[in-house]
C-alpha cells in the first residue's frame, strides 16, 4: 500500500526530472525513459502518474503556470495599491526567479511550440495570455479610458512576451537581460501613463 502523500511527492519529483531533462536534451529527445532515469524510478511509475509524455508536459506547464500565478500575486501583494505600482508588480512577477531558471525557460519555449499542435496545451496558453492581458488592462483602466487601457494592456503583454523570448534566446548573461527587460517594460509603462499615445 502506498504511503500517504506519496502521489504528490512522486509527481513533484517527476515534474522536476522532466524540467531537468528538457533543459539538457530538449523536448524532442526527452523520452520517458530518460525522465524516469533522472527521477530514479521506472517508466511504469511515470506512466502510472501521467499516462504519457504529453500528460507529463501538461503537468509541467500547469506547475509552471501555478508558479507564475503565485509570483505575480506575491509581487502584487507587497506593492502599493496604485496602477503604476501594480503593473510594475505584474511585470516583476513575469520575470520572477521562478520563471527564468534555465530548465523553466526551455520548458516554456517547448510549451509555446507544442501548444500550436496540442489542444490541451493550447488551452493552457490561451488561459495564461488572457490572464496577463486582463490583469494589465484592469490596472491600466484605473488610470486611462477603457479603450486606451485595452491597448496599453495588449501592448504591455506583447512587450513582456517578446522581451522574455528575446532574453531567453540571447547570448548575454541572464542577469543583464532580466534587468534590461524589466527596465524596458517600466519605460513603456511610464509612456502609457504620461499621456495619450500618438
From TrEMBL:
Keyword Transcription regulation: yes
InterPro entries from the UniProt entry: BetI_C, DNA-bd_HTH_TetR-type_CS, Homeodomain-like_sf, HTH-type_TetR-like_transc_reg, HTH_TetR, Tet_transcr_reg_TetR-rel_C_sf, Tscrpt_rep_BetI
Pathway: Amine and polyamine biosynthesis; betaine biosynthesis via choline pathway [regulation]
Any one Pfam family match given in the protein's UniProt record, by short name: TetR_C_6
Keyword flag DNA-binding: yes
Keywords tagged on the record: DNA-binding, Repressor, Transcription, Transcription regulation
Spans through the membrane: none
DNA-binding region residue numbers: 31-50
Domain named HTH tetR-type: residues: 8-68
HAMAP family attached to this UniProt entry: HTH_type_BetI
Role summary: Repressor involved in the biosynthesis of the osmoprotectant glycine betaine. It represses transcription of the choline transporter BetT and the genes of BetAB involved in the synthesis of glycine betaine. Repressor involved in choline regulation of the bet genes.
Protein name: HTH-type transcriptional regulator BetI
Source organism of this protein record: Erwinia aeris
Lineage: Bacteria, Pseudomonadati, Pseudomonadota, Gammaproteobacteria, Enterobacterales
